[in-house]
Structure prediction request, 445 residues.
Amino acid sequence: MKNNIEIEIIKNFKSKILHNKRNIRVYLPPSYSAQNNKFYPVLYVHDGQNIFTAEESYSGESWQLHQTAEYLIREEMIEEIIIVAVDNMGSERLSEYAHQDGVFQGEKIKARGLEYENFFIKELMPFIEKKYRVKKGPADTALMGSSMGGLVTFNMGLRRPDLFGKLGVMSPSLWWGKSDAAEKLRSYNYDGLESQIWLDTGDTEGKFMSFSESVIAELKKIQSCEPMDLVYYQAADAHHSESAWAARVHSPLLYFFGEVGEIEKIELIGRDLTSLKGPKIRINPVLTFASSFKMTALEGEFRSLRPKLLKVNENGVLKPKKIGSAVIEFNVFGQQAQKKIKIVKELSSKVNIDIYLQLKKTAKKEAGTVYLAVNDAQEFEMEHLDKSYYKAALTLKRDEILNFKFTLGSWETVEKNSWGQDIDSHFIKADEDKSLYFEVERFSE
Prediction:
């Protein structure tokens, strides 16, 4: 076995179907060069620029998928696999990853998902199967992506289960197009499907990405279809970013290509304070396994130990009845977990968040007016307290998610790390009044 991680780059792979060229990045497992007669399962991943290294990633971060796969292989936690990371085409990304027309930032986007699917199946896969020793057939062929890459994985995989038997659908953009998330889930027939489907989202990705109670109920229906196997994971405190996907991508790899082991613990994740008047709260039962694999339990049973004070439905949604304290219990696979919930008369609908910013030496030289730029293209001018310190006082809806970066007034002057690279967005959840502190190294490259 080789000691260094081997990634080959196929430059300017031409598509006659899409009339464009893109790079293809291929991770080869440790034994590939030594065992010339061995064939390997294959994992295809969209947004190839973001998958292995950060140099060409738009966010300056990557999944480091080769590092995760290599570690799991060397620890004998998964079998050896080949990973094929397929670059996106930048401005054509939304169009290629969409099977429905949509609108983004006011611009109509014409779907070319069927053409991209044909490129993948008729041009890319035959090339990979000829050049590399990959096993063929759905049982040994996985497809994975995040965001719009998760959406195209969902559509391609369910349209062609004869080719893709393992689907890694991470933070999928199920909001895209005219149909909502539940409608998209209902648009396919799962009866008799033999696929393994990993579906996840982060619980701080914002309302447009969140899975409502109706979507969770739909997932439970889908999970009951046999022989298909569906695993869902709602990742706590995870936002919509390469770093968040990198932090949990080991779980779908274990699910597809290894063994998850025995359950070690159950955590009931969610706010432990609710009110008679206020937003719904849903408890997320997360199972952690010996391999560090994590998933949300769609099976299992919730119950309240004080139902006169607090009820909980089958989807984990709390229904407070009286002021006081109650305990909810969750049972699944012979395991049990409890969570204490405090019930008050009313929670304020608004939360006050004070954000303090300190500029480090390089950033201080560059700065004039500093703005807090949020993900819906709004900007808040920060109060200049003294030479190095700024403040923004925000009032948000309770439980609202805010993603933001610090800028000097444009996305060309957004905060960067000490090496001049773009950094991931900050995020906050407005669950209570709080003060938060940040530092910026620099604004220029």
The CA atoms of residues 25 and 264 lie 36 Å apart.
